[in-house]
Amino acid sequence: MAQFFHHNEYGYCARCPRTCHLHVCFGNVAMAATPAEFQEFRHCVTETWRHYCLHTRDPEARSIALRTAAPRLALVFSLVELTQLRDILENTALLLEVEELLQSE
Length: 105
Description:
alpha+beta
């Protein structure tokens, strides 16, 4: 059974017990990532959010393009959606840190 880390009305993050990949499901987008890929994606989302959180006139307009590793492919979000995605990623990262600290004791 998958271990759920965080969820909100837009999506969730869970870890597959077989592969240990982190599954980020958000709206109609789903991604399976290694822990390193998860951290890279988290960083990308956070940096994008920081840039747009002060410069977006309409927080519900889907006008924020989040570049992906695939050529010529971007995910498009509103500031509201990007904030919710960032919430999932940041809370999951905190729980992963706690888990790591508990395992090292």
